[in-house]
Each structure stands twice: as structure tokens, then as C-alpha cells.
Amino acid sequence: MLKKTPGDDDKVALWEAYRARKPDAQLLADVIDLLRGERDRGRRTLDLDERTLALLFDAPPTRPPAPRPAPRPTERRFRPESSGPATQPRREDAAPAASTLAGGPVSEATWEQLEAAVAACRKCLLARARTRTVFGEGDCDADLMFIGEGPGVDEDRQGRPFVGAAGQLLTRMIEAMQFRREDVYIANIVKCHPPGNRNPHPAEAEACLPYLYRQIALVQPKVIVLLGAVPLHFLLGAKGITHCHGQWREFRGIPVMPTFHPAFLLRSPHFKRGAWEDLQAVMLKFGKAPAASRRAARERKGQ
């Protein structure tokens, strides 16, 4: 039961001490318990000004600002669930949805609006540690689109997708398909580097997917190649890249070919042959003959 409402100075001190001894999961659980209690006491809204939001979601400032006589117009309002067992804060109130922009929905954004929104995005915890967002690059009218999982350390530093060792291998794969890297479009499931190069968490992918959906809609590729298990799962809802690779699938009417991620191929080179067979199937979609087939045709023509 709340016995008093601490001032800003007390909030800072309490929050610093609290975060020092509580993991993020426990913090979330305690916030949920607090909201349940407020709901049971008849509260239907909680006014969260910018300073309170900073205390909840970011590191608290060391010196509180002077008290203000009235809330600012940019104040956000949080509504606890009014009925039924509350298990977590409503996502649409806890943070702005990635499906909307200041100028309208993501589904209607231009390239410039979309890239600006990604650069400013703080929809998930990945934004806290990133160096740069990695929007994507290539031909915005490309017939062929590649989708990976997320930026690595090199990509985070440079702000470009697939620039490390795995990126070099991807470039060679694209060239072996008789394309140039600048003629295709390359993007990822998430736009920020997951720490430790781990796979993106579901909440992180969910926050970023509207951006990717809009990129796909703007590019309108004829074929999409999914690089690895992560895009296979989050874009198509399928699991098991070793079983699904090489099998044509579809996303919103676009043919999709799942294959292995270049980083995985660097660790497990014996899968390269399977990946090359997957890419050859994509080449055939574009009427391109693999190199071995073209050599055989030239040999037959010379006989």
C-alpha cells in the first residue's frame, strides 16, 4: 500500500537503489503489481510526465529539474486494464507502436520518412546500446531482396548491412548468382545490433517488423531470399532452416527462398553446397543459367 508520494529527489534515489538490486524482469513484475493495486483502488488513469517516463525506462537524471506548475502538452497517459486479470502493461500504452509515425502510419511512409523513423526509433531495448541503426541498402526498385536477422558489430559501427566477413561472403554469393550487390536490396529483421550477436527476441522483432514490411512494399521485389532461421521464423512463422531451405514459400504473394545465413556457412562450410543449390533455384526464376550449366552448353555447342 502506498503511504506517501515521494518527490522528484526521492524518486531518483529510490530508483537508483531499486535498479541496483533488481533485474529488469523483476522491475517489470513490480510495476505490474503496482498498476494492479492502483486499478483495485479505483484509479483509471496514471499521468506520466517526461521525467517519470525517464525514471521508468531510462537511466534517471542525477539532478531533478525545477518543479513545473502544470503538465506539459506532450504528457503521455497510461491506462491500467479496467477489468480482468492484468498480466502486463498494455503494449500500445507502454511505448509508441512501430506501426505509426508522427506523419501517419508506417504502411504509408515514404523512403525518407521510413529511414528517419528508424534512425529515431527507441521501441525496444536494443536502442540503448546501439552505435547506429542499420536501415538497409541497395536498389530501391530491386527485383531481388535479401533479408537477414540483424546487424553485427561491424554493421553497428558502420550503419550498413552485411559488411563483415559474412557480408563479404554474401557479396560473393550475389555475384555468383550473376547479380551485382548494388542491384539487389538488403535488409534485416531488426535494425539495431543485438548484444553478443544473439538472435533478436520476439518483442524486438515485433517492434521492427513494420519497418521491414514497408521496405518490402516499397521495393516490390520479384523474389525474396531469407538468410537463416531468424527471418524464416519471424517473417513466415516457420522453424528449422535445415529442413526448410531450398523449398519455395510465399510472403504476401512474393516467392520466398529460405537458405543458410552466410555467418553460418563460414562456421559450417559443408552446408555451402546446399546453399548454392538454393541460390541456383532463384537464378532459374530470373532465367539465369548457373555457371556449370552455361559451361556445359558452350561445350555442347563446340562439339
List the defining traits of the structure above:
disordered N terminus, alpha/beta, Uracil-DNA Glycosylase, subunit E, 303 residues
Molecular structure report:
The strands form three sheets. This protein has a six-stranded mixed beta sheet, sandwiched between helices. A two-stranded antiparallel ribbon has the order 1-2. A two-stranded antiparallel ribbon has the order 3-4. The chain has two domains: 7-43 and 50-61, no CATH class; 100-293, 3-Layer(aba) Sandwich (Uracil-DNA Glycosylase, subunit E). The chain has helices at residues 8-21, 24-40, 50-57, 91-94, 111-120, 126-129, 153-158, 165-176, 202-219, 229-236, 241-244, 262-267, 272-285, 291-302; strands spanning 46-48, 76-78, 100-101, 104-105, 137-138, 144-148, 185-188, 223-227, 249-251, 254-259. It is of the alpha/beta class. It is elongated and about 90 Å long. The model is unreliable at 1-6, 11-15, 59-65 and 71-97 (pLDDT under 50).
Can you give me a brief rundown of this structure?
This protein has 303 residues and is α/β, with parallel strands linked by helices. It has helices at residues 8-21, 24-40, 50-57, 91-94, 111-120, 126-129, 153-158, 165-176, 202-219, 229-236, 241-244, 262-267, 272-285, 291-302; strands at 46-48, 76-78, 100-101, 104-105, 137-138, 144-148, 185-188, 223-227, 249-251, 254-259. The chain is built from 14 helices and ten strands.
